[in-house]
From TrEMBL:
Protein name per its UniProtKB record: N-acetyl-gamma-glutamyl-phosphate reductase
Keywords: Amino-acid biosynthesis, Arginine biosynthesis, Cytoplasm, NADP, Oxidoreductase
Organism phylogeny: Bacteria, Bacillati, Actinomycetota, Actinomycetes, Micromonosporales
Catalysed reaction equations from the record: N-acetyl-L-glutamate 5-semialdehyde + phosphate + NADP(+) = N-acetyl-L-glutamyl 5-phosphate + NADPH + H(+)
Organism: Micromonospora chersina
Compartments in which it is found: Cytoplasm
Primary location class: cytoplasm
Amino acid sequence: MGIRVAVAGASGYAGGELLRLLAGHPEFDLVAATAHASAGRPVAAVHPQLAGLDLVFGATDPATLADADLVFLALPHGQSAALAAALPGPVKVVDLGADHRLRDADAWARYYGGDHAGAWTYGLPELPGQRAAVAAADRVASTGCYAVATTLALAPLIAAGAVFPADVVVVAASGTSGAGRAAKPHLLGSEVMGDLSPYKVGAHQHVPEIKQATGATSLSFTPVLAPMPRGILATVTAVPTGDADPREVLAAAYADEPFVHVLPEGAWPHTAATAGGNSCHLQATVDVDSGRVIVVSAIDNLGKGAAGQAVQNANLMFGLPETTGLPVFGVAP
């Protein structure tokens, strides 16, 4: 018997991706998956890509999850904290939601509202010191999808003093799975196909998380809904402090990272190249007109942006190689 794991909120897109990764994981035994409206239904009836996985959704309550060694919470923002608090102390938890990411209670109130549940260890191992912190933690707050793509592009540049932490601008396009599985008119195929549309302009909830993770002090963020099921392409611009080569800074920071790839000169990230994998592709240059540093980042929002990132954290929490059970390469075409 391996490490017993359960997934709460497994009927959504991130939950389904978690089930797919966990079903093939050599050390984790998937023992429970819960849902609200889908409780009592076979998993494959909701996630047809998991045909052959003999599992039925249970109710999302502590009793269903308490026998696991590790619980993943793939619940809507604001719903994780109460459930996590009701789980037995020995159960380790990785939260894919936002409930425990922010250290600043005022930032939580401003962007999410309601009571601040307190901060857990932040689950982005590529940040300095975070790999050891995640490995030592019993409760880990996994990252937001836009936050991963932006933080990996920006954090090493600020840490190295290569760009100013103020006046950072991010425009990032995401596939529709990032908006969740609930039926919404603006996510209908007829509405999305052939269209790009910004949303939550000037007030996206990942802004305080990105600032906290990168050290940025001023951030303008514009998210864009793109007509594709999965993937994020983020363009990050900042003002340089000198003449450091931003690509060299990133290459040095990620030289030993299994999931972060700084592409060769002249090659630019594509979302399709990261689909199905847990990797982030990066490229950087300096704009010849404005002089601003430009970094482009691509991830799979359901992989490195959600389920893959969560499994990477869980591997560290149980002393496993962090690449265990995770695809490094994308699926193309």
